[in-house]
Amino acid sequence: MNKGSCKKYCYRNTRKTLPQKPSSLSPIEMVLFDMDGVLVDSISSWHHVHTYFSTNNDHSVDAYVKGRITDEEFIRRDVSQWKKNDKFIFKKELRAIFASVKLMNGAKTCVQQLKDYGVMVGIVSAGIDVLADKVASMLGIELIYANQLVTDDSGRLTGEGVVNVPLMHKDRVVERISKEYHISQNRIAAVGNSCFDIPLLRSAGLGIAFHPDDECIIEEADVVVREKDLTNILRHITPYIK
Fold it and tell me: Which CATH number fits domain 3-240: 3.50.50.60, 3.40.50.1000, 3.40.50.620, 3.40.190.120?
């Protein structure tokens, strides 16, 4: 793991330790996908909304990776910029904003083939639940872990969020899923694209870097798929399916 390959401050300086890789790989029973840049052809659901509002969260990202703010405060700072007439937007407006986000090439075929093999498929994303729910519905995925934006009784955002997937600690979600579904982590494959997915990949028996954003995840992955088509990951998973 070469932290020097990062061009910006590396969050691993803040986190310090990463999960231990499962000691062996057993037949795959579950595949967990990151969403942004993996299941959808969009760099980040948060970035997508910021682009719509012509805002950015660069200062918040810097504060977060350096451990100066929590995941909850990170969400709070992001959502505080998404206002119209000085009022928070309605959650349904996010659905309209995300209407332009497209599925990744090969996503439908990939997910369907995995399901046909009897493999469980899930989303583990530090992205926004509104987009995760849309993607899950389009792909027929029932296992969804993403970060929730809280609304009031009228459906308007309150500015608060529920952190279901800590950006720097996706391994905690894998551990939780493993216990809830009684599937050992060495029977799980994980697919991600950025340095923040390293804990996700290290928590799984098979870690796949898909169309990687940076060198860091390439160094940590068991398999690297550079082509921007999710069907290309199947040949690396199917040999481990009973």
Answer: 3.40.50.1000
